[in-house]
Design goal:
cell membrane; MetI-like; MetI-like_sf; 14 helices; MetI-like fold; mainly alpha; transmembrane helix; single chain; transport
């Protein structure tokens, strides 16, 4: 049968054999859980459902109950605030460090190899380390002679959470932007310098336009990743104290795995998914544009 196929048909068949497993993987591990989560948000899914299989249809009731939660406004504001501050800070710090590492100096290679470590470590491990550093008798608390852990202070816990999250994500920007800066056309920089452009004007008019695609993609990915932040606040503060570090991710987790209101937890997850889909669509557009250049 294969012998009867033309060369073009064989090529298409070969491509199909490589593509089908990828699509099956996406359908099995992303499509099915997504469809299941959407379904759960419209039914009364509880622990008994795992035994009886019964989940009565409740329509939009889970969404109405979620929108009435007293913690939801705080969690929404925290999620947006963490995302906004994190993205801006990581971008500025990452771009500054990337510009720094494009210059060769003694020890630059060693520093460049150390920078990615926070990003490469498992998030649970990193969060546990910071929790130990910032506990009441932790090294940082003793170093600054603080009266107690900032994680227990409602006014400081969110600030600390944002700071740790910034620290975690900066290496991602450094890696992406260092590679991008190394590909900035040298002849354009030299031409701008000959025209009398100073360092700032060269950066604004030559460097930034050259790395704009990398900036757009890395920023979009950071927004998507930060919007669904869960592990860090869950381990560092558990959403406390006094709900001061609750995010949409922790609310969904608490509803599902502490109160066992799986339908409401799924509803929060779906609301968050709708927001991230907007940025995911932007990412796909940027990636597609990059392929056609």
């Amino acid at each position: 049968m294969l012998a009867r196929l033309t060369l073009g048909q064989r090529d298409r068949l070969g491509h199909l054999l490589f593509v089908v497993p990828a699509y099956l993987y996406i359908l099995l591990f992303f499509g099915y859980p997504l469809a299941k989560n959407v379904w759960m948000s419209f039914v009364d899914f509880r622990t008994a459902t795992f035994v009886t299989g019964e989940a009565p249809w409740v329509g939009l009731q889970n969404y109405r109950e979620v929108l009435d939660l007293s913690v939801l406004p705080t969690a929404t504001i925290n999620t947006l605030l963490i995302t906004a501050v994190t993205v801006v800070a990581q971008l500025v710090i990452g771009l500054a460090l990337a510009s720094f590492f494009t210059r060769s100096f003694p020890g630059s290679r060693m520093l460049a190899s150390v920078i990615p470590l926070p990003w490469l470590l498992p998030l649970v491990t990193t969060a546990a380390i910071w929790q130990w550093l910032l506990r009441d008798d932790g090294p940082l608390v003793r170093l600054f002679a603080a009266s107690g852990s900032p994680l227990a202070d409602p006014d400081l816990a969110l600030v600390v959470l944002i700071g740790v999250n910034i620290w975690l994500g900066v290496p991602f920007y450094v890696i992406i932007l260092t590679a991008a800066l190394q590909n900035v056309p040298v002849d354009q920089l030299e031409a701008a310098e000959l025209d009398g452009a100073g360092p700032w004007r060269r950066f604004v008019h030559v460097t930034l336009p050259s790395i704009r695609p990398q900036l757009a993609v890395s920023t979009t990915l950071t927004i998507i990743y930060t919007l669904k932040i869960l592990e860090l606040p869950l381990i560092l503060t558990g959403g406390g104290p006094a709900n001061s570090t609750q995010t949409l991710g922790t609310v969904a987790y608490n509803l599902s795995f502490e109160k066992f209101e799986f339908g409401q937890g799924a509803a929060v997850g779906n609301l968050l998914m709708l927001v991230t889909l907007v940025f995911a669509l932007f990412y796909v557009i940027q990636a597609t544009r990059g392929e056609h250049r």
